[in-house]
Hints:
It is a single chain. This protein is of the alpha+beta class. Among the domains are: about 105-185, Alpha-Beta Plaits (2-Layer Sandwich); about 190-270, Alpha-Beta Plaits, CATH 3.30.70.330; about 275-345, no CATH class. The chain contains six helices and nine strands. The protein has a five-stranded antiparallel sheet. Strands 2-3-1-4 form a four-stranded antiparallel sheet. Helix 3 crosses helix 4 (about 165-175).
Amino acid sequence: xxxxxxxxxxxxxxxxxxxxxxxxETTIQKLLDEATILKAETAALKAENAALAxxxxxxxxxxxxxxxxxxxIAKTPPNSRPSNISPVSSGLTVPSTYTDTPYCTxxxxxxxxxxxxxxxxxxVREAIEKEIRKQQGKENWRCIAVMRDxxxxxxxxxxxxxxxxxxxxxxxxxxxxxxxxxxxxxxxYPIKVDNAHRDGVLSAEGLLLPxxxxxxxxxxxxxxxxxxxxxxxxxxxxxxxxIVYLHRGSDANRLLQEGYFHxxxxxRSTNVFERRPxxxxxxxxxxxxxxxxxxxxxxxxxxxxxxxxEGHNHMDCNATPKCVPCGGPHESYSKSCRVLxxxxxE
Length: 346
């Protein structure tokens, strides 16, 4: 009798659970049906909003002056962009001197004292025009622009109409400039390339690979003039930084705006190259401010930058470091030198 009662109760419990399960399945199915309906309604609303936005864009009238009216802007959908607003670049600021305008520069800082007064834009213009007008077919030729460099008043810039004319001006300027003045080499536009793979640029001896200039120029569709590896070549690191000098300012602008420079099929980041003033030091004798000379015209015996002795290169030196300018226990070019870098060692 007791067993029959328990069996009946168990059957009732099973029936109750089955009813609850059926109810939950019904609820889940209703939710799924509602979700399907909501998806369909959302898709319809998106399509309707897109059609409305396109219709509003087509209805905007831009006057002949190029600027939209207030009413046209008011009807512009919130997600659209006014057509007369240029995008704001999130990249690096490109130096304003990066231009394709060709010019040659005359440095008059070393002009003879007796002829210093002749080293001015007016005299330079007159001398160059006089010389070029001697050529056949150029009897009325004139300089398009002659001006002093705003950043260096000792430099006079002569602008050409194109690269060929600038080359002609440079050749003539080398003949007619006053004694002591000099025509500077062509303007180049440097950019800094970080994390470049060393093996794609340098050989095992630390020299630039043959044909690397042409290869980098072709790979980046730019006119590359030269490349300088600025990371230490003997530190064993695979990646480093280099400076790429370009002939055209437009190439430098583009590569800085894009943010990448391709090296042996690898893309590396570009940055504006900031020139930092360096100490006036001769890297042959390691002296400072000695007759204002540099290594290329130093007549003294070469001194090792590491140990201050003669007769060998610092790359082959393992002696205890000693600084020539200050006598400290470091290389003669180290930023630890209190004579070369006093502000860093205060």
